[in-house]
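Handoff note, outgoing to incoming analyst
You'll be picking up this chain. Sequence as last confirmed:
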Amino acid sequence: MADTQNFRTAFRGFHRQDVVQYIEMINNRHNAQVAQLNTQLQTAREELAQFTAAPAQDNGLQAQLDAALARIEELEAQLASAPVKTNDELEAYRRAERAERLAKERAEQLTAQINGVLAEATTRMESVSDELTDAVDNLSAKLATSKQELRSAVDALYAIRPQED
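Most recent structure output, in case you need it:
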């Protein structure tokens, strides 16, 4: 099939309505082709009936009869092969739809797993943050105490230092 169809993309594949419209278009085209082939076949049969009813007086008529018979065989062969093409396209669409459904289910499973991992990581990070905050607060308190003790020691050293007159 020489037709190319560009489907709009959707969140996890192609836009479903575009695909359905494309399949309907192909199906309608196929039905029109079958109808046309049936019409041509009927016309060829009518021509055959006309040629077989009239006596073959001329070689030109015999050649036309042979051509009409060949055309009938060709049209019957095309008509016989046409339904298989549509069924193959519909089966391909069904397979694509199944694959899309399985992909959606797998994506939902992965999303649930990722959300679980993110929740666990968030809980751990909050716990570590609380522990670090407590440690920093404790360290700040000890540092303040150490500064105060250092100032007291400096003051004590100034207090016992001899005075120069």
